[in-house]
Amino acid sequence: MGASKxxxxxxxxxxxxxxxxxxxxxxxxxxxxxxxxxxxxxxFLNSKEDGISSKPEWKVILKRLLDSGHLMKNGGRYVxxxxxxxxxxxxxxxxxxxxxxKVAKKKSTSVKK
Length: 113
Prior knowledge:
Radius of gyration: 22 Å
Organism: Araneus ventricosus
Helix content: 55-70%
Number of strands: 2
Strand order of the largest sheet: 1-2
CATH class of the domain at 10-80: Mainly Alpha
Structural class: mainly alpha
Number of helices: 4
CATH topology of the domain at 10-80: Arc Repressor Mutant, subunit A
Largest sheet: 2 strands, antiparallel
């Protein structure tokens, strides 16, 4: 019995993740930078899976996207929130670039000796 509960929870989680991706995609696909209304999002969700916009879960997922900062509301429309980087801080370095820096640092310290 425990396995069926876990399977059900996993399926619900996957369903929520799918709806989350669709909501983000629907906001991203709006022409220009106007943003998407709830009507746009509902139409997109229904185009992917019939009747999904009548379920209340998608509104909860939309609210969580707003709360987490992935989306912003701009005059009744939803837009993707792109965080601005400050001049002193760059993007995180990848593992490959960190390894390259370590090798370069080792070589420069061994040359000084």
